[in-house]
């Protein structure tokens, strides 16, 4: 897991399993993902991993670094990643469009984390997976990477387990149940949601709850 390979003055490329940032070390910059997926995680002493955030194309990684804080958790690429690199400093003067998107992303990131506290603390396995798949689809749709009712889903069942606090066996059984009920279709790392409203109801979302 080496350093980022620069594509140009303001871009960086990461291979799968390569670190975008390491815990407690100053990051090379603030990354605006253009292509690929990455995640932030916490590794417990016994080897268990909890994924605490997933970054998709269009996301900033990690917005709070601009406040001068060191990464409290490592960030690693899940797929090949191409990202625009920005300096980790607060903007001065009039904000550019990119800086406005950054601050909007910071607020949305906080809202997602608050929503996931409820999901991990109170929801069933079925409700957790419904919430996760809906959120990922909506974020891909907003990035212009959803096609009708489907989008790419490069996560493994182990990744999904580490995101939702479930075992891989439980994830597998729950996904099979969701397929049998016609809630989702998963094939060749693609997700299709035949009935968005049915999946929202399964996730126990409020009518105005925004996932993206």
Automatic annotation (TrEMBL):
CDD domains membership: CAP_ED, HTH_CRP
The entry's keywords: DNA-binding, Transcription, Transcription regulation
Annotated ranges, domain HTH crp-type: 123-197
Signal peptide: none
Any Gene Ontology biological process: regulation of DNA-templated transcription
Keyword hit for Transcription: yes
Matches recorded under InterPro entries: cNMP-bd_dom (IPR000595), cNMP-bd_dom_sf (IPR018490), HTH_CRP (IPR012318), RmlC-like_jellyroll (IPR014710), WH-like_DNA-bd_sf (IPR036388), WH_DNA-bd_sf (IPR036390)
Molecular-function GO terms, alphabetical: DNA binding
Pfam families assigned to the protein according to its UniProt record, in alphabetical order: cNMP_binding, HTH_Crp_2
Record bears the keyword Hydrolase: no
Name under which the protein is recorded: HTH crp-type domain-containing protein
Organism: Sphingobium ummariense RL-3
